[in-house]
Design goal:
alpha+beta, 60s Ribosomal Protein L30, Chain: A, four-stranded mixed β-sheet, 11 strands, globular, binds iron/sulfur cluster
Length: about 300
Amino acid sequence: MNKKEQREKFIDIMAKFTAYTGKHLPDDVYAKLKELREKEDTTIATIIYDAMFEDLKVADDLDRPLCQDTGVIQYFVQVGTKFPLIDEIEDCLREAVKRATILGPLRHNAVEVFDEKNTGNNVGKRIPWIDWEIVPHSNEVKIYVYMAGGGCSLPGTAKVLMPLEGYEGVVKFVFDQITSYGINACPPLLVGIGIAGSVEVAAKLSKKALLRPIGSHNSNPRGAELESRIEAGLNEIKIGPGGLTGENSVMGVHIEEAARHPATIAVGLSTGCWAHRRALIKIDADMEYEMISHKGAIL
Ligand code: SF4
């Protein structure tokens, strides 16, 4: 395959992958929703969960997006230094989003800030958003796509706490925000928390925490314990599916951290909704792909 053919294959895979993500939940999110549905016995909670599963079935049957808000497209790229298209990934991803917008179809969600104009193809200044990680000595690329819907982005926030507020301050910050705005994000929620020394690092880590598989834990046992405690506490609030009360509030709580400045504790918060459209694909140097988040999916 020459460079031109490689490029065309890569764009085609990424366009189909992005459109597919709008129509099918990843395996872990689907399994968690099933688990939470089984724990409910009130009429209202079971009706809402059953409506979600009906929605997923209809989306699959009709080959349509599972939510009308297909979000702003964000890619988290882990690219090997020897991946043949490393110089062209950004250009290819912009083209892939334009094609996915037609293929999906995806709602037009890119509004240029100072022109107040919708671009009509989900591509705009710095959108699709691309986050880069360089992987030495590798010839493959792994790419997460995340569809950042309006409702699920709305509770997002970040702040630098005074050091004396401690990690208790982090917990208070999270609970205040979820009890004030969580309902906007179509619960049950996936809660991503970033803890760091400055606000932009904490905010970015909170979004990266949403990329982790549900059921995974922070690599530090104390971090994992804090995740479990916050999850248990948020579930005590019983926000329920759609915010209409139920046995649980969240699908999970994920924390990612970076070593902080001694005098600051920055905390970032991002939320994912029940329709948590996050997918992971691996593409090798021969442009062969594997969808890691959706086992066996063929694009
Ligand atoms: S919060 Fe999620 S499920 Fe609700 S409208 Fe937005 S994208 Fe759709």
